[in-house]
Amino acid sequence: MRFRLNPVTRRRWQRFRQIRRGYWSAMLLGTLIAATLIAELLINSRALIVSYHGWHFPTYGAVRPGSDFGLDYAYETNYRELKKKFANDGDADTWVLLPPVPFNPFETDLVENDFPPFAPSFTSGHLLGTDITGRDVLARLFYGFRIAIVFSLLLLTCEYLIGVVIGCLMGFWGGTFDLLLQRLIEIWSNVPFLYVIMIVASVVPPGFGTLLLITVAFSWMGMTTYMRTATYRENARDYVMAARAIGAGSGRIIFRHILPNTVSTIVTFIPFSLTAGITALTALDYLGFGLPAPTPSWGELLKQGTDNLESLWIVGSVVCAITLVLMLATFIGEAIREAFDPRAFLFYE
Amino acid sequence: MNDKTQNKLVLIVLLWLAAFASLAAPPTLPANLNWQTNDTDPAFADPNAKRGGRFRTYTPGFPLTLRQIGPDANNTFANYLRANSLSLVSIHPNTLNPIPELATHWAFDPDGKTVYFRLDPDARWSDGAPVTADDYLFTMEFMRSKFILDPFSNNYYGEILKDVVKYDDYTIAVAAADAKPNYELLFQVAIGPTPRHFHKLDENWVKNYNWRVEPNTGPYQISEVRKGKYVEFARVEDWWGSDKRFYRHRFNVDYVRVKIIRDQNAAYSYFAKGELDSFGLVMPRLWYKKAQGRPFENGYIGRIKFYNDVPQSPQGFFLNTGDPILADRNVRLGLAYAINVDKVIRTVLRNDYERLQTMNEGFGDYSNRDIHARPFDIAKANQHFDNAGWQTRGPDGIRTRNGERLSLRVTYYSQDHTSRLVVFKQEALKAGVELTLQYLDPSAAYKQIMEKKHQIALMAWAGGGLTPRYWEHFHSDNANKPATNNITNTADPLMDREIIAYQKATTKEERVRLARELELMVHESAVFIPTYKIPYTREAFWRWIRLPQGYATRTSTEIVEPFGTSSGGLFWIDEDVKTEVQRARPLGEKFDPIEILDETWRVGAQPQISGGGAP
After folding, report:
1. A159-178, pLDDT tens digit by residue?
2. Are B192 and B88 in contact (CB under 8 A)?
3. Which residue in B242, B245, B310 sits closest to B100, CA to CA?
4. CB contact under 8 A, B382 and A288
5. Are A202 and B426 within 8 A, CB to CB?
6. Hey, are the CB atoms on A203 and B444 less than 8 Å from each other?
7. Does residue A17 register a pLDDT over 60?
């Protein structure tokens, strides 16, 4: 069966494409997100291809000890040194192809008799310099972005799932259910989120899952309010009454009639929720209550940067990255809002 | 009545009288006491010091109470209070001999447990009342009281110390429970007085005395408290100690304002603006990155690096032998060879710190200098891990044994250690061991470690003391139970015997021999991986802060230190220079830069002093 968009959606999509700034922002952000999926091929200390008695592809899979490539140690091969060694040997059959940025976000690239942070330099290969322990800033920035965006997307999914279900039911059923849940939400949203994180962090160091769980637990309420209102409004419309008159059940009314008509409300919020998720994680990491070290993270880089303002490249890189992502998301959000604006299709005479 | 009965009666009356008299008479001092004092060691203050001015420093948190005893009292701020509460004797910061403080003379009883003190009749409380023997009797009563809610003091004054005896208003004896060599005994029993006229001990004591300023005996007393902002100390008017041999020309500033600044970076900004007078720069990050630039080049702010000679706090990885993986000595040895301390020192720490060789360094004869920490050596690490049965490596390069990965958790509590730990982690991977890093805030980390739930703890014990302590860290009495300092859960019967022998030994030779043997046993058991020591202190200070000849003392841990009878209060403020610097700074006028390096007290180095344009 061919996937067909309904005419309204198609018109919205066209409208979105016409808004150049938002459209290109979406393309750029999409590319960035897609690139993080293959981050290991772009920014990694492991070589893409090693030619040594046949071709080897060490990027994914098990650790390859140095002894695999004729080196005298049993721990993971240092491919940058291997490349230099092969180049010195001058054998045409042995060579190493490194990723564009040949550093991983965890390794400390230290130079004897000099002390990190190192400034950006082409000769060392650290295009954005290193942080205070000698780790590549670009690598940490990129892997940090991957973690932040995955966190944010998961957060968004969970938040919307809970928010939409509860909000929709509140609007649809109304009455006591609505009243009780509203009070519950009021109470719940007064629990200070940061304190909870601090208390939990002092007992167990929060991992990715726990952090996500806690953040979801304290951020699903926002969506319910919008969904509740939207459902109340749609519920009172004639087409819902018509559906009811025909004899449609609650499930059918919610899923076939109300939800599709509230989708525009949800969609316009997505870019902003995405940025909210990223900033939340960054803020937690900055305060030291986020993901445990040495996870690459923007918040941790920001903390390092502000503590070491003399090394401007650290704080500069991360501030630029955050600004860029937040700006892209805002442009997309604006464009979506405009594309979904019903006034674009109405003409008052 | 005949003569005989009359004589009998007289005798009985006399006996009665004698018995009564002996009951009522105060205890008498033993004859032939050899009273000692110290009026020969050199004074170490600078006679050129000027009085006056206000010194401004900072502390990261507002104190939870102004009490020195009881709940919440053991915080950073308490150091300021303790430094102004004198005790019977003090220690000369350069010769390390005892010097008079509140007592002028002391004498040892042959029993090895009791010390007699002659109190200084000049000593006064800050409210003007004389300090007498009764205040020491009250210390015992006070510290043993259940109302103060302070188990440590209850224990110290109840178990470690036995008694205080008053002979007259200015002569007392303090007895410890166990015999000790004289030097150690003297400082163990050198208690401080407690003002009886100020305290009312009852169940509300803790609450009632939270914010009351207790009269003290030291040169400064709290004069103003602005909650959340600052605490100001003022010099006690006509302080009784001003003309004593070791206090002359010291404690020169009139006021010391301790500001509350939570964040170190913010505090540094205050300092750079001239709103604080000095700033500690021991951390390489501060010394190399922050304390640079125009104010230093123009000589407005000076820098000093001063090598001292004090017991090093045992800093390193403490391995919990209660953990199934770490119970194996081979794993512990492997780990010791897989920790690359030298690389961390060479890179992240900028060659600033030095490798700590053993747990107890800097205790003079007591330290065993023949022991050397195990170097980073992958071959040896591999051998020990192989011997322990961790022979196979998983796809991630981590060793495994029966499907279990050789992954160990390191608990730590200082964000500044993260940058060092990531290097340790990377290097340990080469030997096939994974270190997972668990950062906890200090109180949570302390709780975990005290409950012995850690695998590896990266931490340091507060240094100090006169001799190494083994019982609390390694005796089996303290193993496998919460709230003791034996965080490695070491329980070795052989070691227990040595520790008890060490505690009971009364001659220095015997104790030194046992201490060195014990240190070797600690090294052999491989439960502690020493990391680094910092054999110096570094500070920046504004030009108007003037330091004495020799800058500081052998045991100074701070250079510009306002309080502390041992080596505090040596600097002074030159108001003329201050006015001049404040005039010159906006104009960009230059002075000679002040960059001081002092190695007088550097251990194992030839003394040499170099300095440029000392203030």
Report:
1. 999 999 999 999 999 899 99
2. yes
3. B245
4. no
5. no
6. yes
7. yes
